[in-house]
Specification:
Elements (H helix, E strand, L loop, with lengths): L2 E6 L3 H14 L5 E7 L1 E2 L5 E2 L4 H8 L5 H9 L3 E7 L15 H15 L9 E6 L4 H8 L3 H4 L5 H8 L15 H12 L4 H8 L3 H12 L1
Parallel strand pairs: 1-2, 1-5, 5-6
Antiparallel strand pairs: 3-4
Helix pairs in contact: 1-8, 5-7, 9-10
């Protein structure tokens, strides 16, 4: 029996990354992954704006849109993705001195925004410290010092694919050019053990993989 997983993310590029990780990590299971928010066109284009603010708006919607769509599609799990680079704008102090507590504070912030009747056992948190591209550095770079970086990660990833005629524009991650770059990067790590190894460099990535292991 297939597992249906819905993803609430900041943008379609985040969805691409999460879909790859989930399908590859759970390759022995029949997993069906759909975007909940933002929506995508039939060609995979993002429909409408994205960003952390719309993640919050979607999960705390007064009409309980998340519950309605989760029931309609009969999702077994819901992934909620958010970057932490601007976490103070949504009420969490940016403090990496105790990264475990920092991750937990973000998780609690998100969880508390959900309707009380939502089944929180369905949740998988993709809390990206400080953005999802930080997870991708070890996909294209073998320097361990670079792989633990959490600042300007798009630039670090672009350095890793320099010479491949590929580029991620930090201001337009959903472009066709960016899609080609993400596709190339993600293809570098397809095996479960490779993804687990990459996750060891970023606490948010590691916690995401730990949740997938429970699945």
């Amino acid at each position: 029996m297939s597992k249906k997983i819905g993803i609430v993310s900041e943008g379609v590029s985040d969805f691409w990354v999460l879909r790859h990780i989930i399908t590859r990590y759970l390759k022995d299971q029949d997993v069906w992954i759909l975007p909940l928010n933002p929506k995508q066109s039939k060609t995979g284009k993002q429909e409408g704006p994205g960003g952390w603010g719309l993640v919050m708006k979607y999960i705390e919607d007064k009409e309980k849109k998340l519950i309605v769509e989760a029931q309609k599609e009969d999702f077994e799990y819901i992934v909620i993705q958010i970057d932490t680079d601007v976490c103070e704008e949504y009420g969490v102090k940016h403090d990496l001195t105790d990264i475990g507590s920092f991750w937990e504070n973000i998780r609690e912030n998100l969880s508390n925004r959900l309707p009380e009747e939502f089944d929180k056992s369905k949740l998988i948190f993709a809390i990206c410290i400080d953005e999802i591209e930080c997870w991708l550095i070890p996909f294209v770079d073998t320097n361990k010092k670079n792989c633990v970086n959490t600042n300007h990660c798009v630039n670090m990833v672009n350095k890793g694919i320099k010479g491949k005629d590929l580029f991620i524009d930090a201001d337009n991650k959903n472009s066709d050019g960016a899609k080609s770059a993400y596709d190339y990067i993600l293809k570098q790590k397809k095996k479960t053990d490779e993804l687990k190894e990459c996750s060891e460099f970023n606490f948010g990535f590691k916690r995401f993989i730990e949740q997938l292991e429970i699945v």
